[in-house]
Amino acid sequence: MTAPSSQPGAEAVRVQTGGARRRRPARSEGAAAERRLGWLLCAPAAVVMVAVTGYPILYSVWLSLQRYDLRFPDDREFVGLANYGTVLSNEFWWNAFFVTMLITVVSVAIEFVLGFGLALVMHRTLVGRGLVRTSALIPYGIVTVVAAFSWRYAWTPGTGYLANLFTPEQAPLTDRASALAIIILAEVWKTTPFMALLLMAGLALVPEDLLKAAAVDGAGAWQRFVSVMLPVMKPAILVALLFRTLDAFRIFDNIFILTGGANDTSSVSMLTYTNLIQGLNLGIGSTLSVLIFITVAIIAFLFVKLFGAAAPGSTQEGAR
Amino acid sequence: MAAFGEVTTGRKWRWGLLDAAVIAFALFPVLWIVSLSFKTPATIADGNFIPREWTLENYQNIFETALFTRSLINSIGIALISTAIAVVLGMMAAYAVARLDFPGKRALIGVSLLIAMFPQISLVTPLFELWRDLRLFDTWPGLILPYITFALPLAIYTQSAFFRQIPWDLEKAAKMDGATQAQAFRRVIAPLAAPGVVTTAILVFIFCWNDFLFAVSLTSTEASRTAPVALSFFTGDSQFEDPTGSISAAAVVITIPIIIFVLLFQRRIVSGLTSGAVKG
């Protein structure tokens, strides 16, 4: 976990100028007081965040190096990297990894396209803008488990409107391919509005004049979209894609309710849960936890590398 | 692009149809579960979108058992306490981030960003073990602590975005007019900050209300099981009874607070989500 380090020199300069502008004439005493107050105010939040994430993740690394099954507590023993070998050579892990990746890539891709469309609708619509925005927020706010039950019943023969309509002969949730498609549908339904809202905020940053100028110069709608809107929106797009990708990678609730992980539809989170709560195997559970953590770190790193310096947080300093 | 053209009736109709499609897609699953919750056991499997026979039986059933009412109390209590603490701690940090210069500020922002992206399942295994040692397993604090942790980045980002928009010179002006520091803050700044705080509280509450992973892994009895988890374990009064109606009714009940928030605070939820995430 590397946090961006602060540069002492730059800070000092800013304290001087910033202090003079906003507070009292620059005094080193004032800057010291400001620094103390800043630390004091941030301390409680920082302590909670680090204590509840930092320590457990280190503890998790330690547990992952042990054979530790709560059903056989006497067999607890340090086994080095053996758990990693067990997990990485196991088809359950690779299947769950593949399922998670598939759901993440497909659902984020669909959400991005739909979300962009929805953002344009919410941004530009001529009638009932408030109504559209309000109803788009409902999937965001609704409890995932509730939505998942609704989709489950909708696709169960008998109780299901959709199942009766589209697949009257089968039970789509018991077949792997169609179950995965329904999981993706549930995920897309739930989170497209979130994507759309972030993109809508990005749309608001696109200067109307620039679009008009491009239109006057003869750029068509598609050209305006690609060469004016997309570049201006790049930071908003990065934030939306990064957050949604990592969020989709955590998928759990939907799968738990829709299939319970049956027929090879477990995600990595679901697999960890099963090993922990049903298997009570802390060693393997921790190994899975650490592997998921590493995967997420790699995904985040790749995103920031690919998109360059437009990472969230890097624009922080100028925005005061 | 619509903004450039004339507003014609045809154009209005097209937008209207598009809007209607969006609204239908957004509301479909909600309406489906509402419909199921009002159906009688005999008609629940008829697949009709509008119930043939309406009944309130499902709602009576879920409130008769302690199973659901108890979990509802847990959900409300845990979400309210987590929200209050996360908003206050987040407010303090956000004020510092928005207004003060101090070394370590970027580190704080970096850490909260990392936590916002953290795979929550990675914490479940160690917390399961730690909470058992610390006797926090299956207790309210055992859920409140992780909720605060994951709500804090949201609380800090959203509130600092709001705080940045406050014209802080007003505080100085009030003091020049003879107000004390406390008066200036209470009379001038607090009212300006209030909308941001309310917005953050709603977002954090929705987040806590929504959680399933922590609640299903770190609780085991009625003592702290939250409503979404209770819902997922519903089996009906006897094993021969189909729980569909009860689950649907319970699902509608836990959806009501969210619908109320969305209807009342639509603008604030939108501005909170977008300012927190994009303006950073």
Beta-strand percent range of chain A: under 5%
* Radius of gyration of CA atoms of chain B, rounded to a whole number: 23 Å
Order of the strands making up the biggest sheet of chain A: 1-2
Number of helices of chain B: 11
Organism (chain A): Natronosporangium hydrolyticum
Subcellular location (chain A): Cell membrane; Membrane
Domain ABC transmembrane type-1 (chain A): 97-303
Membrane topology (chain A): Multi-pass membrane protein
Can you put this structure into words, describing what you see?
Chain A: Residues 97-303 form the ABC transmembrane type-1 domain. Chain A: This is Sugar ABC transporter permease. Chain A: Keywords: Membrane, Transmembrane, Transmembrane helix, Transport. The complex is a heterodimer of chains A (320) and B (280). Chain A is globular, with a radius of gyration of 25 Å. Chain A starts with 7 loop residues before the first helix and ends in a 13-residue tail after the last helix. Chain A has helices spanning 8-22, 28-64, 82-88, 91-124, 129-141, 144-154, 161-166, 176-204, 208-216, 221-249, 253-258, 268-278, 282-307; strands at residues 66-67, 77-78. With 320 residues, chain A is mostly helical. A two-stranded antiparallel sheet of chain A has the order 1-2. In chain A, helix 9 crosses helix 10. In chain A, 73% of the residues lie in helices and 1% in strands. Chain B is mainly α and 280 residues long. Chain B is 74% helix and 0% strand. Chain B has 11 helices and no strands. Chain B has helices spanning 9-37, 57-64, 66-99, 105-116, 121-133, 140-164, 169-176, 181-210, 213-217, 227-233, 244-278. The longest helix of chain B is centred in the last third of the chain and has 35 residues, at 244-278. Chain B is globular, with a radius of gyration of 23 Å. At the A-B interface, helix 1, helix 2, helix 4, helix 5 and helix 6 of A face helix 1, helix 3, helix 4, helix 5 and helix 6 of B.
